[in-house]
Design a protein that fits this description.
The chain is mainly alpha-helical. Helices cover 82% and strands 0% of the residues. It is built from 6 helices and no strands. The radius of gyration is 17 Å and the shape is elongated.
């Protein structure tokens, strides 16, 4: 599968060079993400958002596939909020936003315990 993703990236890049649209950047971002190339995926999702600020999926993918996975929960929540604002029926965005909030709360709880123990 990883070999196929490399070919997909090549083809999406060709498509982007011919017609730089948000959808192609988003698809290439998914391929980069699958390959573990998080920085490249982030750039492509961000470019997709720049080209089409009303793309709920681009916000969802950047928030879920990258920011949440990287532990950048506050930023992920912002992207999920935007995805929900654009598409209030995106149930996956609600689910993942809840997960991001839970993980963020765990981080806060750990910090509180650490502060108490260090007093």
């Amino acid at each position: 599968m990883l070999g196929k993703m490399k070919y997909a990236i090549k083809d999406y890049t060709t498509a982007i060079n011919m017609n730089p649209c948000a959808r192609y950047y988003q698809f290439r971002g998914v391929a980069f993400d699958i390959l573990g190339e998080k920085e490249e995926a982030f750039k492509d999702y961000s470019k997709a958002i720049e080209l089409d600020p009303q793309s709920s999926n681009a916000y969802f993918n950047r928030g879920g596939d990258l920011l949440l996975e990287l532990g950048r929960n506050e930023e992920a929540i912002q992207d999920y909020n935007k995805a929900i604002e654009i598409d209030p029926k995106n149930t996956y965005a609600y689910k993942n936003r809840a997960r991001a909030k839970e993980e963020l709360q765990e981080v806060y709880d750990q910090q509180i315990v650490k502060n108490i123990l260090n007093q």
